[in-house]
Amino acid sequence: MPIHQWLATLTEEFKSKTSLKDIVNELRSKVQIQRNKDEGNNPAQPLIIHIGGFEKKGSHWIPQVWYIRNVYKLGLFGYLDFRKEFDCDDAFCEEFENIHPSEIRKVLKVKAKQFKPFWFHQGIDLFTFNVLEESIKSSFRLLCEKHPDHDIPTTIEEWSKHVRMQVLMYGAYYEAFYSNDQQYVGGGADVMSLPWPE
Questions:
Q1: For 181, which DSSP code?
Q2: Tens-digit pLDDT profile for the chain (198 aa)?
């Protein structure tokens, strides 16, 4: 069953949870149980699930991007260490732990104005992805600077188009260079976004 369908079967079970961390910990447990059933004694297969949202810290809403994974070390070209055991971490917190909650949104705004939005990825073949991502970002920055109908994004909807373009570009790379059974990325891209709570 595709993971988005499996997650949809679990939504009722999380309605009583009051924090994203609680949801993620419960989901990690469910993923562990399901993968133990699915894999049995077979070798582990890498899996990373991202869960994003906002939580209030003091009087400030801050983003959280949790990832549930059995991948413990990423290499330039693949996963170097993946196991049967799943863990979870807040990737956003790891990057912004030394920034006061009142300034996080301002830091992100400055990065966006510089056409360097904060993001992270834990996909396979990061070397290729990073090269392609950097080249397309440079191309689109130049397009935004030179073309009258393209501006540097200022809204979540505009940034979503750039994210979608980068995923489609990476999928096109797999479609062009790999056989059907090795096309780990592709088949289109759906982008969802959450507005910053006010």
A1: G
A2: 777 788 888 888 888 888 899 999 999 999 999 999 999 999 999 988 888 899 998 899 999 999 999 999 988 788 889 999 999 999 888 889 899 999 999 999 999 888 888 877 766 777 888 888 888 889 988 998 999 998 888 898 999 998 898 889 888 998 999 999 888 778 888 888 888 997
Backbone angles phi, psi at 110, to 5 degrees: -65, -45
Q: Exposed, middle or buried: residue 46 (CB in 10 Å: 0-12, 13-18, 19+)?
A: middle
- Domain locations in the chain as residue ranges: 1-100, 125-198
C-alpha distances out from residue 122 to 68, 70, 119, 177, Å: 11, 12, 11, 21
